[in-house]
Amino acid sequence: MQLFIGSKSYLDDGPLAKFTQQFRLGGVANNAATGAGLERVLTTSDLGGGVFHPQTFNIEIDRAVAEIGSDFPINVEVEKLLDPATASYEGLAYDDTVEEGVGLMLAVPTGATNIKFSFKSKARTAPVAARTVGVKLYTRNLPDNAAVAAWSAGVVLNDIDIPTNLNMQYDSQTLTLAALGITAGNLTQLELTRIAPSAGTNLTGDWILLQVIAIEFT
Fold first, then answer.
1. What's the pLDDT score for residue 86?
2. Which pTM was predicted?
3. Pick the CATH number of 55-217 from 3.30.1330.40, 3.30.1220.10, 2.60.120.260, 1.10.3720.10
4. Which residues is 10 bridged to in the sheet?
5. CATH 2.60.120.260 segments of the chain
6. In which residue ranges of the chain is pLDDT below 50?
7. Is residue 79 within 8 Å of residue 101, measured between CB atoms?
8. SS3 at position 177
């Protein structure tokens, strides 16, 4: 079996080079009896029938973060530090009394309708009893050849539960793009902040968000 891109062909078990011109994508299957090649150009059915397929991105915040300026809804930038418990990986230390933020920018795939955020976080100091952390997300669209949209009023995400230890906590939440005011196919700016929780007792001290956030579009 061979895979060819444009007029070039490569064995499918070998490395595929990148080409800026892709005229056609198809397959060549050799006839075992005659050695002749039978060509078939791939259709949309072979490629998923035009259906949007989930796409997941791991965002390393120290590379994706935008500098927080006066234009952001919350223009207080969260502190970046090494986790005091291990001093081997970076995190964002959100204060418990002042709303602080981190900025991100995403190119939202055309055809997406939902977005899933997955967070890995922990307490900086283990609480004496179970506590919670509130999280809020602000968004705005940066459309093609049009004015940059205004920031949204922000959407409060689900509270994050923090137990009486320093272990990592894995949390996720799926929202529709419409609920966040995000338009598929646009470049989108986000700001993620910490606020008082909707329920429970607020965690005293810093909440540490790990540097990598997984974002999935469906």
1. 87
2. 0.75
3. 2.60.120.260
4. 3
5. 55-217
6. 1-31, 42-45, 47
7. no
8. helix
Question: Which of 174, 196, 171, 198 lies closest to 94 in space, CA to CA?
Answer: 196
Q: Which residue has the tokens 């995400």?
A: 157
Amino acid (1-letter code) at residue 83:
D
Query: Residue 158's pLDDT is what?
Result: 96
What is the distance between the alpha carbons of residues 203 and 188, in angstroms, rounded to a whole number? Answer: 30
Among candidate residues 137, 129, 121, the one with its CA nearest the CA of residue 182: 137
Give the Cα separation of 69 and 42 in Å (integer): 48
**Residues 6+ away with beta carbon under 8 Å from 198:** 134, 156, 159
Which pLDDT score, from 0 to 100, does residue 67 have? 67
Q: Which two tokens stand for residue 124?
A: 């900086």
CB–CB of 149/180 below 8 Å?
no
Q: Compute how many other C-beta atoms are within 10 angstroms of the C-beta atom of residue 158.
A: 15
Tell me the two tokens of residue 180.
């966040």
Q: Helix %, strand %, coil % for the chain, to 5?
A: 5, 45, 50
